[in-house]
Specification:
By secondary structure, the chain is of the alpha+beta class. The protein has 17 helices and 45 strands. The chain has six domains: 32-163, Bulb-type lectin domain (Agglutinin, subunit A, Orthogonal Prism), CATH 2.90.10; 172-306, Agglutinin, subunit A (Orthogonal Prism), CATH 2.90.10; 368-447, Hepatocyte Growth Factor; 465-492, no CATH class; 501-606, Phosphorylase Kinase, domain 1; 613-819, Transferase(Phosphotransferase), domain 1. A six-stranded mixed β-sheet has the order 38-42-43-41-40-39, sandwiched between helices. A five-stranded antiparallel β-sheet has the order 1-23-22-21-16, with helices on one face.
Length: 820
């Protein structure tokens, strides 16, 4: 922050602000007065009252997540709507009823009553009213974004600037004891988890708040102007947000290095839903081109705090992100919240609710042997939950640290650093963040195999636990002695066998591939009976069916990789580790791997019902409800890969052949993470070679940068296949050749209003045309040629679930290019 003194300068600024407000009043009085008795309704004409220039509007805005629910709001009205309308509606800067959106069907209206009160109501009650208003003569939407109620004597009776929500606009000031509340999420306008508060002593503070009570925890940022601060002002002359001190000094909160005129640029400063106060600027140019360095969107010019993840530690509450998650600031200064491996968000739309283990937690009645059989550790580097410690050991080596956590049912994870410190942590884990020491290791306790069938209850007796253990030991070798002898024999022969191998033929040893089994090539050769039964093949390799030599004779699918990068064993193991840490109910689970000499193999769980393509094209036709659930499941799996796992994974080859079905017909995406294992000259062209041209996004052929939107395109094609129960490209149709390309045909039928044709003969789907139409519209959004026009997988999942309205997609400019 920079402090400078100038009493005269401060006085002139205040005068300028008053002059602007006065000018705005006169302009509004001449052109945009709202007379007594005027009213607005969500679906009426008009739905808003404009400022004189038309820059701002006051009225009803539909929610991004529910087009039938409305906010009473103020927004920038001249900023053009994005083509993908759910991605960025008009930028809202003030709202009255964030907690209580109203319905047009419930008779919602806002009225400036004959006795001069501004009231939002429906048929049953008053939802909101402007506070302290008495006998206003008229209202006005001003060009600075302030909606005001004015008395007959010209005095202000009420103004939106004095009851701010999450945003400050140029010329707006925040007085003592005033607050900005963040939204709960970018699209949920309920009071959120963060508060900016100018205390009565003049200290500006950012707090984490409890939802839904609003109780404020400790500050995670403060200006330290206690006793001196008077107001927080957004100065339009030098494009800065500053604290005006009582001694006429000014302390910058956020600012621009070069001020930009309000004539050419829009400005706002917002306490965003991730807890960061950001100052934005956007060009008024509506041509869709850039202006100088500024893109045709809201550009961040400054923000506080600079590292909220490490500054936002609070003894109460979960911290910046939810319980059992951890916080990271990305390259765009945005906050990303992540779940540890083998954990998932309780609600991916409300990540502040935190993460849960995707496995039953440890039973406190289990002894050390049981715990070792059921649990293992996966490792995160430089991640910490600093306030969850309950026990510390020092000095101690890492293996002992793991053991101490393993035998302690309260221990969720341990933090180990090379100095010999071991910190045990218990649930709930709060204030998670990327740490300050790249040498620290988070040893996270997870279930072996991802999800063991054990009880998380602590109520069973010790005798019952012993009986369970005895049964397990009998199955493994009839007695403890036989079991231990078997282990010794296997270990002895394994040691001698590996000792004889050359350096290139040794197994990967000592590498942190937690939860995965390292197989020898001979083991997998025997499991597949010499790689005899082929399940399928593609550009990345051939898949064989096999049976492990365990008590259950577990059936697996062994993928023998072709043309992989000639990386070292360690590099391969690290790539496999990232795949192994990716766990979701809609992803095929990786069981183990083999890295021996030049051989590279991956071992997956076996899916009894084969691929989605086999199922879709089989006889009889799968039911519509089953197909719809499978589409939603695949969308959730892709959402996890793109946004919810530790590191983003772009699949690059989404198609029905790579979606497998388990015993309950749960869809599971396979082959994710393989793009990095293929040769570099192969990763660009593998979809051409594999005969899946109909699923390839157009940017592949333009040699443009590949993003997660390539998977969105492929999913859109596959979604149409699921809806229509047919292949994307059908050859040999004769007179029906116009139906050969599914995306073209469905688009044409949709535009002509003949959508029932695409599910002709499917009585179940024909009875559910509203959902069929929703799925088709989502698919047509996904296959837009321009990647920026496609929604994210998060939005796709929301639209398929019906949580978000789906607007009419524009005409795709080219499908043929993806088949050329």
């Amino acid at each position: 922050m920079v402090t400078f003194s100038s009493s005269l300068f401060f006085f002139l600024r205040v005068c300028y602000l008053l002059l602007m407000i006065s000018c705005s009043f006169s302009c509004a009085q001449r052109y945009r007065n709202v007379s007594l008795g005027s009213s607005l309704t969500p679906l009426g004409q008009p739905t808003s009252w404009l400022s004189p220039s038309g820059d701002f509007a006051f009225g009803f805005r539909p929610l991004e997540t529910d087009s039938n629910s409305f906010l009473l709001a103020i927004w920038f009205d001249k900023i053009p709507e994005k083509t993908v309308v759910w991605y960025a509606k008009k930028t809202v800067v003030w709202y009255a009823n964030g907690k209580s959106p109203v319905k047009a069907s419930a008779g919602a209206s806002v009225q400036l009553t004959e006795d001069g009160q501004l009231v939002l109501s429906d048929q049953t009650s008053t939802v909101w009213g402007a506070t302290g208003v008495n006998n206003a003569a008229y209202g006005a939407m001003l060009d600075n974004g302030n909606f005001v109620l004015v008395g007959t004597d010209g005095s202000l009776r009420w103004q939106s600037f004095q009851e701010p929500t999450d945003t400050l606009l140029p010329s707006q000031a925040l007085g003592l004891n005033s607050r900005l509340w963040s939204r709960l999420t970018d699209t949920d306008y309920s009071p959120g988890r963060f508060v900016l508060y100018l205390q009565s002593d003049g200290n500006l503070i950012l707090h984490v708040a409890a939802v839904p009570s609003g109780y404020q925890y400790e500050a995670y940022w403060e200006s330290n102007t206690g006793g001196d601060g008077a107001r927080l002002i957004f100065d339009q002359t030098n494009s800065s947000v500053y604290i005006a001190l009582r001694n006429d000094s000014l302390v910058n909160f956020t600012s621009m290095s070069v001020p930009l005129s309000l004539v050419n640029f829009y400005h706002r400063a917002t306490l965003d839903s991730d807890g960061v106060f950001r100052q934005y600027v956007r060009s008024r140019n509506v041509s869709g081109t850039t202006t100088g360095l500024w893109r045709d969107e809201w550009n961040v010019v400054d923000y506080e705090p600079k590292d909220i993840c490490n500054q936002g530690t609070s003894e109460w509450g979960s911290g910046i992100c939810g319980y059992n998650s951890y916080c990271q600031v990305n390259e765009e200064s945005k906050v990303d919240c992540h779940c540890p491996p083998n954990y998932s968000f309780l609600d991916s739309n409300y990540k502040y609710k935190g993460c849960k283990p995707d496995f039953p937690v440890q039973n406190c009645d289990a002894n050390e042997t049981e715990a070792a059989n059921l649990f293992d550790f996966t490792t995160l580097i430089n991640v910490d939950w600093p306030l969850a410690d309950y026990e510390r050991y020092s000095p101690m080596d890492e293996d002992r640290c793991r053991r101490e956590c393993l035998i302690d049912c309260f221990c969720a994870l341990a933090i180990y650093n090379p100095g010999g410190d071991c910190f045990k942590k218990r649930f709930p884990l709060s204030n998670g963040r990327i740490g300050n020491s790249e040498n620290s290791r988070a040893l996270i306790k997870v279930a072996r195999g991802g999800n063991p069938s054990i009880s998380s209850s602590s109520s069973p007796s010790r005798e019952k636990g012993k009986s369970w253990l005895l049964v397990g030991m009998l199955l493994l070798g009839s007695s403890v002695l036989v079991f231990l002898l078997s282990i010794c024999v296997v270990a002895f022969f394994s040691y001698n066998y590996n000792k004889k191998l050359g350096k290139k033929d040794r197994l990967v040893a000592g590498l942190p591939v937690s939860g995965l089994r390292s197989f020898t090539y001979k083991e997998l050769e025997e499991a597949t009976h010499g790689f005899r039964e082929e399940l399928g093949r593609g550009a990345s390799g051939i898949v064989y069916k096999g049976f492990l030599e365990d008590e259950a004779a577990t059936c697996v699918a062994v993928k023998k990789l072709d043309k992989v990068l000639q990386e070292t064993e360690k590099e391969f193991a690290n790539e496999v580790k990232s795949i192994g840490q990716t766990y979701h109910k809609n992803l095929v689970r990786l069981v183990g791997f083999c890295c021996q000499g030049t051989e590279r193999l991956l071992v997956y769980e076996f899916m009894n019902h084969g691929s989605l393509m086999e199922w879709l094209t089989g006889d009889p036709r799968p039911s519509w409800d089953q197909r719809a659930e499978i589409a939603i499941g695949v969308a959730r799996g892709l959402l996890y890969l793109h946004e919810e796992c530790v590191g983003q994974i772009i699949h690059c080859d989404i198609k029905p052949q790579n979606v497998l079905l388990d015993d309950q017909f749960t869809p599971k995406i396979s082959d994710f993470g393989l793009a990095k294992l293929l040769k570099r000259d192969q990763s660009r062209t593998r979809t051409d070679i594999r005969g899946t041209k109909g699923y390839v996004a157009p940017e592949w052929f333009r040699k443009a940068g590949v993003t997660a939107k390539v998977d969105v395109y492929s999913f859109g094609v596959m979604l149409l296949e699921i809806v229509c129960c047919r292949r994307n490209v059908e050859l040999g149709l004769g007179e029906a050749a116009e139906e050969a390309i599914l995306t073209d045909w469905v688009n044409d039928e949709f535009r002509e209003g003949r959508l029932e044709v695409v599910v002709e003969g499917d009585e179940e789907a024909a009875m559910d045309m509203r959902r069929v139409e929703r799925f088709v519209k989502v698919a047509l959004w996904c296959v837009q040629e321009e990647p920026s026009m496609r929604p994210t997988m998060q939005k796709v999942a929301q639209m398929l679930d019906g949580a978000v309205a789906v607007p009419i997609p524009p005409e795709p400019t080219s499908y043929i290019s993806s088949l050329a």
